[in-house]
Amino acid sequence: MNKLLFFCTILFVVSCVRPTDIYTSAPLVNVDSLTANFLQGLNDKDSIAIIKTIAKNAVVMQQSIILNGDEAIAKNWIRDGVSSISNIKTASLITGSDNKIAYDAGTYSLDLVSGGKGFLEEKGNYNLIWTKQYNGEWKLTFVHLEDLSQMQVVAIAKGL
């Protein structure tokens, strides 16, 4: 009987032990520092620094454009866009993180070069999502930008 009780106790203890995983012991990430690092690369017009923040499987959605993967994002969004924008500012409305995912959403403003004829101010909403990679690095996996300036121009043109 004692052997049976001992065996049941061992089974109970073993069943309560969870396998370790890379996420359980990691501290929560500072979302503000992730956003600041990404924005610093944009404001410095440093394509390499920006690309280093992007995950291989990332998605960028901006207006009607959807880009999948870091190569498409680098070629069609970062390389083409980084020279035409400056003075990016954000105001976070909500941030959060756990051991696997971090997010930041809010409003942004930036200066946009308009065909070499000065700057236009763009304002809109943003959503950024980072995921923790298997090597422990946090990478940007989703970017959604909604340019509200263009919506206002369309509304004015339509007389709304």
Describe the structure.
This protein has 160 residues and is α+β, with helices and mostly antiparallel strands. It has 5 helices and 6 strands; from the N terminus they run H-H-H-E-E-H-E-E-E-E-H. The protein has helices at 2-16, 31-43, 47-52, 70-81, 148-157; strands at 54-62, 65-68, 85-97, 101-113, 119-132, 138-147. The protein has a 6-stranded mixed beta sheet with strand order 2-1-6-5-4-3. Strand 4 (101-113) and strand 5 form a beta hairpin. The radius of gyration is 22 Å and the shape is globular. The N and C termini lie far apart (83 Å). Mean pLDDT is 83; it is low at 3-23.
* Largest beta-sheet characterization: 6 strands, mixed
Q: Tell me the structural class.
A: alpha+beta
The first-to-last residue Cα distance is 83 Å
Percent in helix: 25-40%
Shape: globular
Q: Radius of gyration, Cα only, in angstroms?
A: 22 Å
Portion in beta strands: 35-45%
Secondary-structure topology with pairs:
Elements: H1 2-16, H2 31-43, H3 47-52, E1 54-62, E2 65-68, H4 70-81, E3 85-97, E4 101-113, E5 119-132, E6 138-147, H5 148-157
Parallel strand pairs: 1-6
Antiparallel strand pairs: 1-2, 3-4, 4-5, 5-6
Keywords:
single chain; 160 residues; alpha+beta; 6-stranded mixed sheet; 39% strand; disordered N terminus
Brief digest:
By secondary structure, the protein is of the alpha+beta class. The protein contains five helices and six strands, in the order H-H-H-E-E-H-E-E-E-E-H.
